[in-house]
TrEMBL record:
Tree of life domain: Bacteria
Gene3D superfamilies: Glutaredoxin
Segments forming domain Glutaredoxin: 3-44
Protein name: Glutaredoxin
Coiled-coil region list: none
Amino acid sequence: MIRIYGSPHCPDCVACKAAFDEKGTPYEFIDITGSMPNLKAFLKMRDHLPLFEEVKERGSVGIPAIEKEDGTITLDWEEVLKEYGMTAQPGKACSLDGKGC
């Protein structure tokens, strides 16, 4: 099952979830702002994967982060949606610089 690491306070995460919901594609949403264990699990992943280096340099969080069924992690949620035959409705960027979460 796909896992989406995100926050209900992130417009990109809300848009990502809505697209999955609309098509009925199963996923597990892990709210990193909803519990300390979820936040710690996300930060452990983020701090150890090179994928997040650029995100951290920009001062962004790196959500939504998608863990695909094969275990790979991606930040390109729109591409994951395309892989499942869905189209993305982009959210409003939520970082201070306006370039995403």
